[in-house]
């Protein structure tokens, strides 16, 4: 690991940040003690860091293998997690590359990172030294640590592995590593507050039915791509209802929050399209608050299975896209024109629509193929 930090090696890495990596791999390393594979890995790490965690673009930082880079949170999502968190002692039980831990622990005095991958932990130890952060590192798997730990912590954070030994994706809590259903009581014995990062594909109703003491759930998207789901557990609070927060980072969308039981009692209103069409962002769609959207923003749904909404007057601060629309006849679609095509609750896919009407992607206009309660419909937005 130290050889990669050699000044000449670092200069070579920085000089080749824009070089084609495949062509680099075909070359012989100019350094006896560092392979070309190691050099390319550092170049990849720097390129990922430019977009994903720019705070690591410092001299002396070492980057891990690709899988660890891919599994790490982005800087923007990690900073969001750290909002309003403070205390004396913080522990990350599955620290990985340590991006979340770095930001979550900023307002804590005592920091502990647990990681079973020795090579990865050595990299994190080195990097946190460069970043001048004091921390207690434990090279152990979570279950072994919990079995002998006698300390209490103000906050526990963990991100369970979501793949099995054969790299297959897993989603149910009992299939994750660690099994959260088996260890949740152990966790509450050593902390009053626990934050768990989970796959955005996991079902919210399922989570609420199997985990204890959930106070809130955050659905976090970045530029309308849902990245992760955070579950906050607090054993010292009696919570009658779970707060669901939908957040779309790096966008102008307003945040949307509600209590889980609100959606259970909400009833949508329906109508044919009016002047404005509203498409909730993907964090809101993931939350499942389909009826509550209609109630909260006083807009009408087009169809029970079409999560599009409409109103005659423009609604401010809607958490998603707003389009001014008109209903059109399919005969008005001219061959060769360019449109941004949206198809929801419609038998034709965007590709099939392009083929049928001989149109292509692009331009500033939208064509929306969908259904109302009266049947299939085509909407146009300039």
UniProtKB/TrEMBL annotation:
Q: Does the keyword Methyltransferase apply?
A: yes
| SUPFAM superfamilies tied to this protein | S-adenosyl-L-methionine-dependent methyltransferases
**Which molecular function GO terms apply here?**
methyltransferase activity
Instruction: Fetch the CDD domains from UniProt.
Output: AdoMet_MTases
Q: GO annotations under biological process?
A: methylation
Report keywords, A-Z: Methyltransferase, Transferase
Per UniProt, residues of the PG-1098 ferredoxin-like domain are 276-319
Q: Do the record's keywords include Protein biosynthesis?
A: no
Query: Record's superkingdom?
Result: Bacteria
Q: Name one Pfam family in it.
A: Thump_like
* InterPro entries cross-referenced by the UniProt entry: PG_1098_Fer, SAM-dependent_MTases_sf, Thump-like
Instruction: Enumerate the spans annotated as THUMP-like domain.
Output: 329-375
Q: What is this protein called?
A: Methyltransferase
> Could you read off the lineage of the organism from its UniProt record?
Bacteria, Pseudomonadati, Bacteroidota, Flavobacteriia, Flavobacteriales
């Amino acid at each position: 690991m130290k050889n990669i930090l050699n000044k000449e090696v670092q200069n070579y890495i920085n000089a080749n940040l824009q070089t084609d990596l495949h062509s680099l791999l075909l070359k012989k390393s100019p350094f006896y003690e560092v392979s070309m594979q190691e050099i390319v890995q550092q170049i990849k790490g720097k390129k990922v860091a430019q977009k994903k965690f720019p705070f690591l673009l410092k001299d002396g930082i070492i980057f891990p293998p690709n899988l660890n880079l891919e599994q790490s949170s982005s800087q923007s999502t990690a900073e969001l997690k750290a909002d309003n968190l403070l205390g004396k002692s913080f522990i990350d039980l599955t620290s990985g590359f340590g991006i979340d831990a770095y930001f979550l622990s900023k307002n804590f005095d005592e920091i502990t990172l647990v990681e079973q991958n020795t090579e990865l932990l050595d990299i994190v130890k080195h990097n946190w030294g460069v970043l001048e952060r004091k921390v207690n590192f434990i090279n152990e798997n979570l279950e072994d640590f919990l079995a002998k730990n006698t300390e209490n912590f103000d906050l526990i954070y963990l991100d369970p592995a979501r793949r099995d030994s054969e790299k297959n994706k897993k989603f149910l809590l009992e299939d994750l590593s660690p099994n959260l259903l088996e260890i949740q009581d152990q966790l509450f014995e050593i902390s009053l507050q626990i934050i768990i990062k989970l796959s955005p594909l996991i079902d919210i109703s399922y989570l609420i039915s199997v985990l204890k003491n959930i106070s809130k759930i955050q659905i976090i998207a970045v530029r309308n791509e849902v990245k992760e789901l955070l579950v906050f557990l607090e054993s010292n609070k009696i919570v009658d209802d779970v707060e669901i927060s939908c957040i779309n980072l790096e966008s102008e969308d307003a945040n949307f929050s509600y209590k889980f039981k609100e959606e259970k009692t909400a009833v949508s209103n329906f109508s044919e399209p009016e002047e404005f069409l509203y498409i909730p962002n993907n964090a809101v769609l993931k939350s499942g608050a389909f009826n509550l959207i209609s109630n909260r923003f006083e807009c009408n749904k087009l169809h029970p299975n079409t999560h599009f909404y409409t109103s005659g007057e423009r609604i401010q601060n809607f958490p998603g896209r707003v389009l001014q629309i008109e209903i059109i006849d399919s005969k008005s679609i001219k061959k060769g024109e360019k449109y941004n095509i949206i198809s929801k609750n419609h038998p034709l896919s965007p590709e099939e629509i392009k083929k049928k009407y001989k149109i292509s992607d692009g331009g500033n206009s939208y064509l929306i193929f969908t259904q109302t309660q009266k049947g299939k419909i085509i909407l146009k937005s300039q």
